[in-house]
């Protein structure tokens, strides 16, 4: 009788890709995969350890799953991912409910390690970070028609607030042919939307080709016949060049969407973050992007309350947000992470001040997002159909301007049955703060 394993994956899409590779390894080794945690012989919690809130979420999930040792058949609780890599043996020492900790360099041995843990041989395992396999089979954990593809792991940027280089190591890019091969496999399995991810997608290729190769990679991915949409996340502002923008503008499969984590707009704060730019250069960049790629959706993130952030510097950021009118925006309070340079900086900002600054930005962004959605009323947009909402009796999905999980939805009616995972054209007739409402229509003619 095969052992049953359940996998809980937390954190970012890059972590999700790691979990999907572990799922494929477990299935290949003869394990039975279960979505019902109470029925599992082993539970793997693939954690995020990026910021304090992510660590808290991981610990909460660990303790919830530990209850199945009493109430279910659970024999082994295993922690993998960034928290496991960052804190290693501390996890089992601080949380005795955990039976085994597996660092990212040991992911390839997950099947053997899980079997050992179930049978009582619980020994933590940490291979070199560089041993994390970036190529291999995956078992998709989300929609079968939309998938992330990780083009590199690790990061060389060393932002002072970020622990990722310590957790994941230096950037390691995959070869273009390996990424394309995986994309072809995913497309043949039914994936039509491919989402390109890495810690810094715009740095892709520097380590193996001697220069950034994201634009070259995207052009090759566009040749994969069955793909319909390709979008790119985590692009760093200083590395966005005209070649990348011209590629997005000219390739039909590349949706006009860029995720650019700007983090701040004040030059002094950015310098203290070990990032480049200032309000003037970032304004010029956003204007250039919009000029080169008409109709582009720009998503960004900002941090409030970075050590030493004055009222004046925050106001500069706040004005920048109002002036630039970003299509999508997330704002987070600064989290002082151990083993990062910024955690040791003087003039740490009060938690309530951080939170209030974040709220002010998000309040204004909600108005901006609502106004931008109102501007779409009367237009026809293409939507990837994700499902049917039985409560409000309509279909829902995403436009090219909406990345999964982080952006809005399009809710729409249809005069005929539609197929989940296919694409439909929707006439927008109303809007909400972050979502659009409409009805299916025929494809617009030029």
Give the SSE map:
Elements: E1 4-9, H1 13-28, E2 32-33, E3 42-47, H2 52-66, H3 68-71, E4 76-81, H4 82-87, H5 89-94, E5 100-101, H6 110-118, E6 146-150, E7 152-153, H7 164-168, E8 172-173, H8 176-188, E9 193-197, H9 206-209, H10 214-221, E10 229-232, H11 242-250, E11 254-263, H12 267-272, H13 279-292, E12 297-304, H14 311-324, E13 328-333, H15 351-374, E14 380-389, E15 394-399, E16 410-413, E17 423-431, E18 436-441
Parallel strand pairs: 1-2, 1-3, 3-4, 4-5, 6-9, 9-10, 10-11, 11-12, 12-13, 16-18
Antiparallel strand pairs: 7-8, 14-15, 14-17, 15-16, 17-18
Helix pairs in contact: 8-10, 10-11, 14-15
Could you name the key traits of this structure?
pyruvate-formate lyase- activating enzyme; OB fold (Dihydrolipoamide Acetyltransferase, E2P); 3 domains; 22% strand; 446 residues; five-stranded parallel beta sheet; Rossmann fold; alpha/beta; six-stranded parallel beta sheet
Description:
The protein contains 15 helices and 18 strands. It has helices spanning 13-28, 52-66, 68-71, 82-87, 89-94, 110-118, 164-168, 176-188, 206-209, 214-221, 242-250, 267-272, 279-292, 311-324, 351-374; strands at residues 4-9, 32-33, 42-47, 76-81, 100-101, 146-150, 152-153, 172-173, 193-197, 229-232, 254-263, 297-304, 328-333, 380-389, 394-399, 410-413, 423-431, 436-441. The longest helix has 24 residues, at 351-374.
